[in-house]
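Most newcomers find our protein records easier to grasp once they have seen one. A record pairs a protein's sequence with a compact description of its fold. An example says more than a description, so a record of this kind follows:
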Amino acid sequence: MENNSLLRYAAGLCIVAGLAGLPSMLAAAQEVSFAGKRIEVIVPFAPGGGSDVYIRALGPYLEKHLPGNPTILVRNVPGGGSIPGANQFQDRAKPDGLHAIVVSASTVANFVFRKSKINYQLDKWQPILLSPQGAVVYAAPSLGVKGPQDLPMLKGKPLVFGGESATSGELRVIVSMELLGLDVKHVWGLRRGPVRLAFERGEMTINYDSAPGYLKNAANLVKAGKAVPLFSFGILDDKGNVVRDPNFKDLPSFPEAYELMHGKKPSGKAYGAWKALMQMGIMANKALFLPTDTPKPVVEAWRTAIGKVLSDPDFEKHAAAVVEGYPQFIGEAARPVIQDATNLSPETWDWIKGYLKDKHNVTL
């Protein structure tokens, strides 16, 4: 994986959480065995999506490194923006190490914004691995753009964007477009795959993908001249500054895109809200959890195993694309990131509520 300051910082966090107490962790892990067991991992989305790809890449290596070499079974529970699957995990998963869940930015966003429809307590689950993932916004060449430098050409042009809902993982994207001053029509009720197909057909004119989806799919559209990358969201460094995404160093980060559009750096309450949504949608994009009351030795066995997975040469060779280039937060190192992603300041909360009500007729 790429060796940069961000990764070194994250590695330090992982060491604090996973290696500083290595003797006790290993001792606890040695007391646990999943030999002959089947472990069910809930993915609260349809097969083939980012969360599904994430756990299916990790799965074989978890089988290799979890004590007793259990079988990992992935169970997809699609629908409702991941709410039914996450609720089901909260209600039914036993704290025995044999039940886990993968969540995404949409699961986090729904936890924050749609509390009347959820009963899951994501902030109390036991974090095993948290994986930031960047994202790239791209546009149709029919708009006349050829690259990021042409962003100002989009001012005043009607654009069409599709996604799941205004309060899902798409919120970080639509707020970005709002801050850039773009004129966007939103089409809701669509997953990322169908939206990308609609973009290819010309029904959508601006779109985004998380890093794995972009590298696997949208990058081919770019090569074919059917899409023009405009900017990435960037990623937070160890001082909380937005820097260029290590996987897309040739693309401006969102603050740079903002400066291209407006001739000044972003600031104020709106930008504060954007940074909060970045914590939610980029820094906490994918995560693997166990139930809240899972015994400590079992939790440590899982955390020790995931550390071994990430350092496994075979994983780095064949499956690391799902986490490539970004810091990985193991165990307790993930909690501050989750805390930042799920606790909004009063100013940020007021701005987001006002934006959703005024622009999308959504009341929080």
